[in-house]
Hints:
The structure is a homodimer of 360-residue chains. With 360 residues, chain A is of the alpha/beta class.
Amino acid sequence: MKIYNFSAGPAMLPEEVMLKAQDEFCNYGGTQSGIMELSHRGPQFMEVLATAKQNIRDLMNISDDYAICFIQGGASMQFCMIPMNFLPADGVADYADSGTWSAKAIKEAQRFGKVNIVGSSKETNYDRIPVVRHWKPTENAIYLHITSNNTIAGTQYHTFPPVHKDVPMIADMSSDFMSRVININDFGMVYGGAQKNLGPSGVALVIIRKDFAERANKDLPTMLRYSTYIEKDSMFNTPPTFAIYILKLITDWMKDQGGLGVIEEINNTKSEGLYELIDRSDFYSSPVYPGSRSKMNVVFRLPTEELEAKFVKEAAQNGMTGLKGHRSVGGIRASIYNAMPLAGVETLVDFMIQFEKENG
Amino acid sequence: MKIYNFSAGPAMLPEEVMLKAQDEFCNYGGTQSGIMELSHRGPQFMEVLATAKQNIRDLMNISDDYAICFIQGGASMQFCMIPMNFLPADGVADYADSGTWSAKAIKEAQRFGKVNIVGSSKETNYDRIPVVRHWKPTENAIYLHITSNNTIAGTQYHTFPPVHKDVPMIADMSSDFMSRVININDFGMVYGGAQKNLGPSGVALVIIRKDFAERANKDLPTMLRYSTYIEKDSMFNTPPTFAIYILKLITDWMKDQGGLGVIEEINNTKSEGLYELIDRSDFYSSPVYPGSRSKMNVVFRLPTEELEAKFVKEAAQNGMTGLKGHRSVGGIRASIYNAMPLAGVETLVDFMIQFEKENG
């Protein structure tokens, strides 16, 4: 039986990427060594690094005004590096609070300076992206921070807030990075852990406008300054070479797919299939406001928690794993990142129809 | 032709480990997913994490007085986390300066408090471990920091400094971690990047005495506090799951070898073979004081830089790669970590004898 893994992350990677990485695992380019056994300053890894960066530039249409950095510690380390670099004690940063991960970013920023929460959907259990026209931005905010996709609540910005020239927008894109076309020029910085759409856990991709990076506090430990990664091309110390190698293979794969426009269309088709079924059913229901529904993490409820437990169990027996909702909110969550093929979503839809017939 | 990779790190891993990881790369435990595609909170990775930790406890004979943590950012991140957690602005930390990496650790510590360099071999180009009986320790130092093996200079502590009850000793063991038997109870903390003896780059192993960890500054960003890793079992955020999985396989392999006592004996045999040849030859010479020679990184010189370049080139043609010395010091460096088999060293010794005959 074919197994589809709907885990929220670490998540499934494209089958072609996994097979290629397996094939050359012990013998990269005829060296009789795996890429993870080779020096990070040798020609093999240097080429991997350069190609990964160029692929990202090509796919996202990124100019030389931006630097592409690979930093360890995941998005959680960025939650502290951002205010540490940019937010002085007497400065104000604007944060939109759209879920658990936004709240964690806010908590870290409050150690360094003042945080103004421009909008929050906490009172409605994060069932939507806070409505942007009601936001209360600070004049002269140091930056605006948003979370573009909320893995736990299953929400996503369908359009981004308007750009204010003097207030760089920073987006945590951990769970929808490179899943759709965005205009990078609207952002001062975007970042995310790789373990949803880009690779294994253990590396964060940070894309930062160079003139914004120059505003950073210079009196910081070497490993916590963005300038270290920019000036040393993410090679001040040994980078996580294998994670970057997988990211390189995944961005190769994205180009082979036809780029982010094509990938976005497939992602639209995948999520629409699920939301249509949920909306026409009296058995399944979405806790998420329609205009905020995530195309990456489709969360839904069944009539009772008992039925949800039965659903998760029987889905697993039928080859669909990782469907249990986050422990903090319960319910069902189908994570359908770039690597989830349409066939996986169709299998889930068929199972949901059958499960409703038997239990509805 | 069999290729032996003498790279200083990332470095070769045991062949059995690479083959096992390749075999189950796309299908871990029958899940049809690779371990890197599975949730870090699922049963498969939780077992990997628990086994990796237990293996380390067994191999190093570590009691429950110590916590075992996996932290991203390599040893370089530890260079700043250590003083950030422990060194107040008015406190003094003792550092021994035995090479480039010690100097980097010292530089980061100086941002936070006062650093007393107890001893240094900088004036003699780091050709030895600074002689401990000449050290000038601070009374009431917050901690003492040493670098147990110096990858670039090719030096290593053969015996550790005496233990002072009130001054916890911290050792950067990046390049000789688990290569020999040590008494962990002599240390407040030992740490190292994995990419020499323990696995791929992208994870640092930190072993810290819990009562020492409790002395840390509590007012720090979440990801930069040791207490976060201790309390959350290195799972506050998504850890680098694949790197920890490889580390688990490597520690399984170490147990299969018979443990650190057996591994230490093999490492002694490997390095003695090289040093004996160097010492009896007029062609090869060691720049390192005999009592400080590293068993992990054997550095040596040839009569001229031209001959060194020829040596590196012909060695590569004969299947021995990664022998060029660090760019800052030149010469030849043979890194012979745990995974380098005796046969690899014997091949190198035979080549060196032949090269001397032809060029001596």
